[in-house]
């Protein structure tokens, strides 16, 4: 059975996608993938095909790679695009480049489109071994998934069952020319040390190590599937509708999680956090325990890579983006058109505000609000009565007319007169 036929079989479930995009680096693996697909479409009805090249600008030698990719694409009649990205100079250049690459590729996908990556069986072995050494747990030992959502589309790795040697043989058979990334020889990178030093030694003494590691990945993926099913069950009770759902923030009830064993707590939270941030390592889980066990009068925060988890009023709230930054003071406002609050959503008015000088500000302390039929109420007491989450109190828009507090947007209901102030909070990124 030829590589092209196996590739067609691997992609059979995706032939209804509106388009296939190949991430084309110009290296051996991605060129083989694109070449095989270009030949298959001559004999089979396949979705439209294109190639995307991500230019990181990290190496001078890489400046010639887009031209090489374009030459190949022109010869094979495949549309070609170059995506330029800026990679922050972080401690882990590998990770930063990978994140920038996936962000750029994902941004190109329309609904239901498929991004094809050329990682193969040898890459999977290296990934599993690397994650094993890092102690990443079951999810990490599952290796690279063959398919996963990416932005509006899907990412798929159709060559995960093919060896590097098989791809090299295909390239030789079809006289393909590819570029070699010199960074693949740089032993400062963990993956390169595994590829060039560790795995050859392991293969010499244990010839079946590749098959064993791939089998480990398959078993870990199956185990992770079972853990995910358990997490969905455990999270169901914590995801019941609540008073603060209108904020649009991911949130959970704390009590159902507390009722679980610690292992099931961590498993449920891993599942819930996975789409939102990099998962915490073993040592970092102490932050969850501190958040969970803090006294009711505390305002605990568990800071993670892409945001933070806060606890308030018996619930857990995931905050990211603007929610993690103190908003700037609101600009001047007439009370007519919607008011964009810097880093804090939008303020609307239904009806017509009373005459007077309108202003919007955030809490300063000691505010009193006149409620219909209840007289003046201390704002702090009103927040306490409504169990307003602590992180929300300092960013809640307050509307004043002629310096007198008249409305707490969306909290105090309809005011005297035929008008109402509503607050649309910032989105959760």
Helix-strand layout with pairing:
Blueprint: H1 3-10, E1 20-23, H2 28-40, E2 49-55, H3 65-76, E3 80-84, H4 93-107, E4 114-116, H5 121-134, H6 137-141, E5 147-150, E6 153-156, H7 164-173, H8 190-205, H9 209-236, E7 251-253, H10 254-258, H11 262-273, H12 286-293, E8 301-304, E9 307-312, E10 315-319, E11 339-340, E12 346-351, E13 358-361, E14 368-371, E15 375-378, H13 379-385, H14 390-393, E16 398-401, E17 404-408, E18 419-424
Parallel strand pairs: 1-2, 1-4, 2-3, 4-6
Antiparallel strand pairs: 5-6, 7-10, 8-9, 9-10, 11-12, 12-18, 13-16, 14-15, 16-17
How would you concisely characterize the structure shown here?
The protein is of the alpha+beta class and 429 residues long. The chain has helices spanning 3-10, 28-40, 65-76, 93-107, 121-134, 137-141, 164-173, 190-205, 209-236, 254-258, 262-273, 286-293, 379-385, 390-393; strands at residues 20-23, 49-55, 80-84, 114-116, 147-150, 153-156, 251-253, 301-304, 307-312, 315-319, 339-340, 346-351, 358-361, 368-371, 375-378, 398-401, 404-408, 419-424. Strands 3-2-1-4-6-5 form a six-stranded mixed β-sheet, sandwiched between helices. A four-stranded antiparallel β-sheet has the order 7-10-9-8.
């Amino acid at each position: 059975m030829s590589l092209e036929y196996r590739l067609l079989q691997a992609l059979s479930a995706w032939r209804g996608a509106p388009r296939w995009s190949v991430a084309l680096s110009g290296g051996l693996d991605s060129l083989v993938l694109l070449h095989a697909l270009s030949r298959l479409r001559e004999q089979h009805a396949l979705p439209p095909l294109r190639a995307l090249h991500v230019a990181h600008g990290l190496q001078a030698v890489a400046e010639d790679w887009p031209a090489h990719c374009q030459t190949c694409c022109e010869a094979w009649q495949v549309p070609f695009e170059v995506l330029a990205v800026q990679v922050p100079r972080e401690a882990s250049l590998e990770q930063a480049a990978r994140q920038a690459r996936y962000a750029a590729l994902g941004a190109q996908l329309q609904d239901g489109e498929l991004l094809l990556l050329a990682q193969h069986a040898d890459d999977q072995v290296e990934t599993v071994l690397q994650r094993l050494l890092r102690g990443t747990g079951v999810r990490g030992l599952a290796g690279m998934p063959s398919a996963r959502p990416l932005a509006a589309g899907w990412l798929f790795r159709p060559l995960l069952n093919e060896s590097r040697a098989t791809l090299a043989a295909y390239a030789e058979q079809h006289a393909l020319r590819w570029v070699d990334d010199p960074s693949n020889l740089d032993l400062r990178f963990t993956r390169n040390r595994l590829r060039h030093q560790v795995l050859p030694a392991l293969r010499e003494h244990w010839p079946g190590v590749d098959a064993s590691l791939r089998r480990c990945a398959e078993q870990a993926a199956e185990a992770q599937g079972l853990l995910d099913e358990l997490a969905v069950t455990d999270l169901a009770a914590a995801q019941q509708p609540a008073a603060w759902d209108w904020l649009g923030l991911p949130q959970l009830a704390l009590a159902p999680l507390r009722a679980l064993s610690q292992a099931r707590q961590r498993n449920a939270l891993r599942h819930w956090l996975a789409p939102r941030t990099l998962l915490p390592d073993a040592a970092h889980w102490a932050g969850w325990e501190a958040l969970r066990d803090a006294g009711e009068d505390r305002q605990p925060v568990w800071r993670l890579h892409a945001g933070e988890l806060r606890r308030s009023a018996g619930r857990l709230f995931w905050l990211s983006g603007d929610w993690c930054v103190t908003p700037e003071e609101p600009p001047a406002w007439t009370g007519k058109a919607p008011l964009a609050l810097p880093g804090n959503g939008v303020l609307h008015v239904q009806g017509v505000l009373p005459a007077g000088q309108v202003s919007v500000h955030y809490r300063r302390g000691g505010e009193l609000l006149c409620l219909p039929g209840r007289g003046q109420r201390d704002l702090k007491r009103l927040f306490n009565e409504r169990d307003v989450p602590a992180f929300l109190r300092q960013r809640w828009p307050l509307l004043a007319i002629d310096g007198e507090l008249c409305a707490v947007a969306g909290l105090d209901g309809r005011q005297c007169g035929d008008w109402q102030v509503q607050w649309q909070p910032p989105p959760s990124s």
